[in-house]
Amino acid sequence: MEKMSRVTTALGGNALTGRTMHCHLDAPANAISVCRDAAQVVVAGRSIFKIFAIEEEQFVEKLNLRVGRKPSLNLSCADVVWHQMDENLLATAATNGVVVTWNLGRPSRNKQDQLFTEHKRTVNKVCFHPTEAHVLLSGSQDGFMKCFDLRRKDSVSTFSGQSESVRDVQFSIRDYFTFASTFENGNVQLWDIRRPDRCERMFTAHNGPVFCCDWHPEDRGWLATGGRDKMVKVWDMTTHRAKEMHCVQTIASVARVKWRPECRHHLATCSMMVDHNIYVWDVRRPFVPAAMFEEHRDVTTGIAWRHPHDPSFLLSGSKDSTLCQHLFRDASQPVERANPEGLCYGLFGDLAFAAKESLVAAESGRKPYTGDRRHPIFFKRKLDPAEPFSGLASSALNVFEIEPGGGSMNWFVDTAERYALAGRPLAELCDHNAKVARELGRNQVAQTWTMLRIIYCSPGLVPSANLNHSVGKGSSCGLPLMNSFNLKDMAPGLGSETRLDRSKGDTRSDTVLLDSSATLITNEDNEETEGSDVPTDYLLGDVEGEEDELYPLDPEHAHPEEPEYVLPQEAFPLRHEIVDTPSGPEHLQDKADSPHVSGNEADAASLVPVDSSFSLLSISHALYDSRLPPDFFSVLVCDMLRFYAEQGDVQMAVSVLIVLGERVRKDIDEQTQEHWYTSYIDLLQRFRLWNVSNEVVKLSTSQAVSCLNQASTTLHVNCSHCKRPMSTRGWVCDRCHRCASMCAVCHHVVKGLFVWCQGCSHGGHLQHIMKWLEGSSHCPAGCGHLCEYS
């Protein structure tokens, strides 16, 4: 932590020397203050009140002001200040509401001088007048500020800020009678100590409590404020109304702010929570700190520049019970580690990329961007050479355009509006959503819905058309999944066959997959196989296509010249795939020539075997195996959902999550589900799909998501007669005692959906108002207001 660089600064004959160093305290520090000669620092907290000498190599404890056997709340300090005119005078703000002054010149061991007990709650801040030795100002949690004259026992004036809490008070360095105060409600007030009855000026500085303020040591009227909204703002108080000059955006609530000596635009800040570092900002460059000190391991509670004319040394105290001296030369500079590239999407999908000119190689084929295709996209400000950071870096801007209409999100809107997520059986939901995706050209999504149906639904209920779309390529019609072929007798010579023999034609390899549970049945009467629920008008065979598939035989399209089929004996009992390389095609002839078919079968198709002893093969089971339980595929389905989410398609992830419900929800952690839901709802609301968004919220089982549509459900309306706000929950105005929900068209009470104009407060039934506004733009109540319905 300690760095060996050393700096010596000459200040009017006195030299400040030192290095980055720290010392351990006995307890956490709440505030620090530096002596006028920059040789000592006082550290105060709930359990510590000590003075340390700042030497060249280390801190040396000089005095412990917590004396006495019994601990006193008067020593529990929230703030401490060292007078800049009298090196023996200190003041502390106690947590019990007491303001205590300390005289280091007293010969006794106890240095306590005076106690002021006029505040009722914790005193947050004390401040000495910069030029008046006996004037002390305090600000308390009770909302009052008090000015004390140390030559008297009581306060000389009390200032009421009309707020709950005063967080900081600071005397102006240039204006003798002026001081600034910051409040819990976000206001900043300027007071004249001669007029305690009212403030001179008040304005809202921050969105939330203002924790600190500091007057600029050189520029008269510049006031820096920091608040819980993570901003530091610089105000010009010399104008008639406070003018915001600069705004610095930090990453956490700002607890302390101090202008850097001899540097007009530099100020130091520390955070109240989360962030432990100390930052030095150039207010002209508000997004990147000029320097950063990272020595503390807990929240920094107090910062002070060692000397009002030396910008090199910064002192700090922290809740990690350390006191540090930071050398500005040893600070890290975040600008050196900042990412020099920028990336942003435009409104129409164009991608802009900015980087250093040295990193962007010139390409001969790249056209200069004119920006006239969809004017305007970029507004480039002309650089001013006088600006302080204009010469630090230069960048080149590249714009990657998309084709007009190429970035359309119509598919997202159509999918969101047409998807069915609830209210039907699972099989119908999957079929409907697959159909929607297929019509929109999203074949992968459609295939996913089809596979989900196969996994989670009973195979016997799956329509053949849907599965055929998944199994067969190039199929022009829906094909059933079950077929029946009968075998009468098996020829003795069939056992010697090892493959399908073809008498002529092209030779190609075939793959035959039969289920192990398929049954081979011999039917003497050559009728339809018992137990088969579909007619035997389909068979397995070769087609002139890319792959084998089921196809129907039509007597009108039969080809007698086709080669005959010879089925090997071992093709039926095997449990695995058999790959055969036929020697030639087989013949198909009219079914009327076969003596082994029934009358119904003869009307559809026929098979002419090589041997008359053959009959049809019977396969009465589905072509897929349905014995695996749906839970077997849970891991695969979860991986599929994560795949879609990682690809950016949270619509698919959320839709499947809602449709499958508890089948898959239990296997995905709650935080991931909540992230998917909120991302999808945000997209729906961006496209103004409010109804779909509300449906998704209602169907969600995540408690954090399901409560989204329960917030901000109250509408504050005015009575359409007396124009007064409706103060009760009913529809009867408690002032004019008339019903506020009267239809302006039919003059009846609206008991259902009510629509009203936000401009004149008149309304009525939705259908009546819509029909009225189709022919007239004036209010139907006759008030003359031009109403609009969109």
UniProtKB/TrEMBL annotation:
Keywords attached to this entry? Autophagy, Lysosome, Membrane, Metal-binding, Repeat, Transferase, Ubl conjugation pathway, WD repeat, Zinc, Zinc-finger
Could you tell me which pathway this protein works in?
Answer: Protein modification; protein ubiquitination
A Pfam family the protein falls into: WD40
EC number annotated for this UniProt entry: 2.3.2.27
Q: Where is the protein found, in the record's own terms?
A: Lysosome membrane
Q: GO biological process annotations for this chain's record?
A: autophagy; cellular response to amino acid starvation; cytoplasmic translation; negative regulation of TORC1 signaling; negative regulation of translational initiation; positive regulation of macroautophagy; positive regulation of TORC1 signaling; positive regulation of translational initiation
WD-type repeats, residues: 116-158, 203-245
Q: Where is this region: Disordered?
A: 517-537
Q: Which reaction does it catalyse?
A: S-ubiquitinyl-[E2 ubiquitin-conjugating enzyme]-L-cysteine + [acceptor protein]-L-lysine = [E2 ubiquitin-conjugating enzyme]-L-cysteine + N(6)-ubiquitinyl-[acceptor protein]-L-lysine
Q: Which residues form a coiled coil?
A: none
Q: Name one GO molecular function term.
A: ubiquitin protein ligase activity
PANTHER family for the chain: GATOR COMPLEX PROTEIN WDR24
The annotated subunit structure for this chain is: Component of the GATOR2 subcomplex, composed of MIOS, SEC13, SEH1L, WDR24 and WDR59. The GATOR2 complex interacts with CASTOR1 and CASTOR2; the interaction is negatively regulated by arginine. The GATOR2 complex interacts with SESN1, SESN2 and SESN3; the interaction is negatively regulated by amino acids. SESN1, SESN2 and SESN3 convey leucine availability via direct interaction with SEH1L and WDR24.
Family to which this protein belongs:
Belongs to the WD repeat WDR24 family.
Q: What does the UniProt function comment say about this protein?
A: Catalytic component of the GATOR2 complex, a multiprotein complex that acts as an activator of the amino acid-sensing branch of the mTORC1 signaling pathway. The GATOR2 complex indirectly activates mTORC1 through the inhibition of the GATOR1 subcomplex. GATOR2 probably acts as an E3 ubiquitin-protein ligase toward GATOR1. In the presence of abundant amino acids, the GATOR2 complex mediates ubiquitination of the NPRL2 core component of the GATOR1 complex, leading to GATOR1 inactivation. In the absence of amino acids, GATOR2 is inhibited, activating the GATOR1 complex.
Write down what this protein is called.
GATOR2 complex protein WDR24
Task: Name the species this protein comes from.
Answer: Octodon degus
UniProt lineage: Eukaryota, Metazoa, Chordata, Craniata, Vertebrata
